[in-house]
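note to self — DONT lose this again. spent like an hour looking for the file last time. sequence + predicted structure for the chain T wanted, 207 res
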Amino acid sequence: EIVALEREPKQIYILYSDASAIQSVEYLNTQIVTYEALHFSGLPVSFITENQIVSSGLPKDCKWLLIPDDDHIKRSTLDQIKIYAGKNFPMLIIGKDAFKYNEYGKPYEPSELGFLYGIKRIDAEDAPHLLEKIENIMQETPVKRDFRCLDYNTEKTAFGVFCRYTEYGGSHLVCLINLLSTTKDVSLKYRGKSISSGLSMIDNVKI
């Protein structure tokens, strides 16, 4: 079951930049909060480095690229992002400083960054609120999310509850783990419809 969950295709990728990590604490903070938000979205997430996106492009399963304040970016990476923007590939910039400088700290000219106005951008904030914003925009992308684990009281994504799913043995396998220090009442929905019953894989008991 664990292997099946791990093999579920990643639809969302986060752009990682070594140069930004070395030169910007703000970048690291935005990376962390972005990953934390996505971690509780119910979907697996992966990273792609500058070298990977330049040499091989985005993986075939990638449907959405998130760019969290990558502020020191190589020219080759900038050119690759421009190509994807020209193809209207779904991307989201998080934060206010993305693509400001090259890897040596030299600012890019505004004329070189005009294409960025065609990419959606939101401010970075704490992970629960950032997740809400990401989810709103996710609805406009090709990203497919069949299962959602919701807070029973608010009907919002249950932040703090790890949720992953995959098809397994002719049915659906859903992994739910409460990572909070307190109990949390949740509901599970499949394509908008509530799930009323299931079978625990731990003790083979109906739930």
